[in-house]
Amino acid sequence: MAKLYFNYSTMNAGKSTILLQAAHNYRERGMVPYLLTARLDGRAGQGRIASRIGIGAKADTFDTADDLFTRLAGQLAQGPIACVFVDEAQFLTPDQVWQLARAVDDLGVPVMCYGLRVDFRGELFPGSATLLALADEMREVRTICHCGKKATMVVRMGDYGQALRDGAQVQIGGNETYVALCRRHWREAMDDCPALRD
After folding, report:
1. Annotated binding site for ATP
2. Which residues does the entry assign to the active site, renumbered to this chain (predicted)?
């Protein structure tokens, strides 16, 4: 039975690596995976999912205006898809998460989403919040803070190495921009938080 999955974590936990390995496993068994990634994140090149360890694969892209149910129905009309893999799922809109859930329910195709749970301010991304509400199964992909504890938060670093407390929710970047931390060290970096000390 098809399900909607949400594999979530902070930055640098290996979400894309796990996605690419799972898609490879389908291909190795003669099945067809369908890969999607956010158009707005072109760090690996447009229409490409890549991991920090050097593996990658071609993918179709989505942006906020796309109807993903219609897209998947069209893809399935061209031939069978064993599983849909969505990278950078935090950039989905709430409507798109509902469209993916509908694809699971009405088209019978499993959908595996991989993305961040919270932003640098400790707030849920709208797509992630909807995935947390609708997913049939959720899995945390773990990484560690510099202290060795599980990292659940991320800070965005400024030009001079300071943790930023405000700014747009979305800013594309990697290790040069974001650092994964445990909650305690995130609170220290954010000056102990309470709503980021307005």
Report:
1. 9-16, 87-90
2. 88 (proton acceptor)
